């Protein structure tokens, strides 16, 4: 009897184990999933839909790191533990990491020799749209723009549907923030801030560009805040933010004109210095930075003069008629340009001829800048009844080192008798040169 009971107990236990195994097996069903528009096989485990790591690699980076699965994509990083207990993995008692936050969610598990990941957990971390049988990432777009006013700075917040490369630059007093590969509503946003009153969003080819004006003596910073399912670009601007833009870009707002009044001995009166000082006064009143290579009978040394030349946006040497040109009538005003083969130093030529890095056009202008400046000076002086000749000149060191427009302006032997209009041509010449287009025409 005892043997019969024992046998019956073993038989019942075996049947129960087999039944439990069958029940567990029946909790795993295979089906079809649209993963970002691509059909793949999925597995429904205890009611939760899973996809293999191999299939998920079609839209994200999936790497196993020991007992953890690292899933990266769309600006987000998910760390999911691998639970060998297939039932426990499908519960919400597991701790997973989504970006910098830890949450309770389903974990990864083993199935048929591969690692499978829960679609609802991945969708939550990526900010994707998920329903059984379909997993879709939203298109890359700017979903909203909001603002907040502060005591010393204002804040703009751009909410994105997914991560993207963000490039920012300061053009004059305008900040441009470019969102690569993004789309969004093109409109002007009125903000609540005291320092940034409005911002404009425009589509720029495949990219989206946000632009706003930066107040005087203010700085700005751009950074991302990435949380599970969301990506934000935050922009702080105002006097409370340190100004960190390169000095090169600060010069775009106030270009530098360097005047070199050449000392001419034996003339009694220093005509070139007189003209340079009056020109500097007029240009300063017009909002330019102006520096003279000398203020009296002595001036800067060669090294200091070359340093100024390299920093200049316009470099003009002022001299009297001292350069004899065969066959030319001497005595009148003349503009001298460097010959084509002697226009640039090795540094300037290298930037012009090579692949231009960022802001290279601000650092070094094209060779047409000098020509356009000369034509504008001739036109403006012609309106005042002053005819100016054009002449070539070879190998003047300061002109070769100047990265933008550079001329030798010969006032002529009769400079002391000229009725001089204090440098009005220069104030109209600026709009046609590349360095100033950045300030007045990039709107």
Strands ordered across the widest β-sheet:
9-10-3-2-1-12-11
The name of the CATH architecture of the largest domain is: 3-Layer(aba) Sandwich
| CATH overall fold name of the largest domain | Aminopeptidase
| Uncertain residue segments | 1-25, 325-329, 414-443
Quick check: average pLDDT?
80
Please work out how many helical segments DSSP would assign: 13
Q: What class, by secondary structure content?
A: alpha+beta
Model description:
It contains 13 helices and 27 strands. The radius of gyration is 36 Å and the shape is elongated. The termini are far apart. By secondary structure, it is α+β, with helices and mostly antiparallel strands. It has helices at residues 2-26, 53-56, 86-89, 119-126, 247-253, 271-285, 302-311, 346-353, 360-363, 368-383, 397-401, 424-429, 434-440; strands spanning 28-35, 38-45, 48-52, 61-65, 68-73, 76-81, 94-98, 101-105, 109-111, 114-118, 129-131, 134-136, 142-149, 154-160, 166-171, 174-179, 187-190, 198-204, 207-213, 219-227, 230-238, 256-261, 289-292, 314-319, 334-338, 389-393, 405-410. The model is unreliable at 1-25, 325-329 and 414-443 (pLDDT under 50). The chain has a seven-stranded mixed β-sheet with strand order 9-10-3-2-1-12-11. A six-stranded mixed β-sheet has the order 23-22-24-27-25-26, sandwiched between helices. It has a five-stranded antiparallel β-sheet with strand order 4-5-6-7-8. It folds into three domains: 28-136, no CATH class; 142-244, Immunoglobulin-like (Sandwich), CATH 2.60.40; 249-440, Aminopeptidase, CATH 3.40.630. This is N-acetylmuramoyl-L-alanine amidase. Keywords: Signal. Residues 1-17 form the signal peptide.
């Amino acid at each position: 009897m005892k043997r019969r009971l024992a046998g019956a107990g073993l038989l019942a236990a075996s049947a129960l184990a087999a039944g439990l195994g069958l029940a567990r097996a029946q909790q795993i069903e295979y089906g079809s999933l649209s993963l970002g528009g691509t059909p793949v096989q999925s597995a429904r485990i205890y009611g939760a839909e899973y996809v293999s790591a191999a299939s998920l690699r079609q839209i994200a980076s999936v790497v196993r790191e020991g007992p953890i699965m690292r899933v990266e994509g769309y600006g987000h990083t998910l760390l999911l533990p691998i639970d060998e207990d297939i039932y426990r993995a499908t519960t919400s008692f597991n701790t997973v990491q989504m970006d910098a936050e830890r949450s309770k969610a389903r974990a990864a598990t083993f199935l048929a020799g591969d690692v499978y990941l829960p679609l609802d957990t991945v969708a939550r971390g990526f900010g994707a749209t998920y329903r059984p049988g379909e997993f879709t990432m939203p298109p890359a777009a700017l979903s909203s723009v909001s603002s907040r006013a502060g005591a010393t700075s204002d804040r703009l917040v751009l909410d994105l549907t997914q991560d993207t490369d963000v490039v920012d630059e300061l053009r004059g007093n305008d900040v441009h923030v470019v969102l690569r590969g993004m789309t969004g509503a093109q409109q002007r946003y009125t903000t609540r801030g005291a320092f940034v009153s409005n911002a404009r969003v425009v589509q720029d080819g495949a990219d989206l560009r946000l632009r706003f004006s930066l107040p005087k003596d203010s700085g700005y910073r751009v950074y991302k805040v990435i949380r599970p399912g969301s990506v934000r670009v935050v922009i702080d601007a105002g006097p409370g933010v340190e100004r960190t833009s390169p000095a090169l870009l600060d010069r775009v707002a106030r270009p530098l004109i360097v005047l070199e009044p050449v000392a001419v001995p034996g003339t009694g009166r220093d005509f070139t210095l007189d003209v340079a000082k009056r020109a500097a006064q007029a240009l300063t009143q017009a909002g330019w930075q102006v520096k003279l290579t000398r203020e009296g009978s002595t001036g800067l040394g060669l090294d200091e003069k070359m340093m100024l030349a390299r920093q200049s946006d316009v470099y003009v040497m002022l001299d009297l008629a001292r350069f004899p040109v065969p066959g030319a009538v001497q005595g009148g005003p003349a503009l001298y340009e460097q010959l084509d083969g002697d226009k640039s130093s090795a540094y300037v030529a290298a930037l012009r001829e090579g692949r231009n890095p960022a802001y290279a056009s601000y650092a070094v202008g094209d060779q047409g800048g000098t020509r356009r400046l000369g034509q504008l000076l001739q036109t403006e002086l012609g309106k005042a009844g002053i005819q100016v000749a054009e002449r070539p000149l070879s190998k003047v060191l300061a002109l070769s080192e100047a990265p933008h427009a550079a001329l030798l302006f010969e006032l002529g032997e009769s400079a002391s008798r000229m009725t001089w209009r204090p440098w009005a041509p220069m104030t109209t010449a600026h709009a046609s040169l590349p360095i100033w287009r950045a300030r007045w025409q990039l709107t």
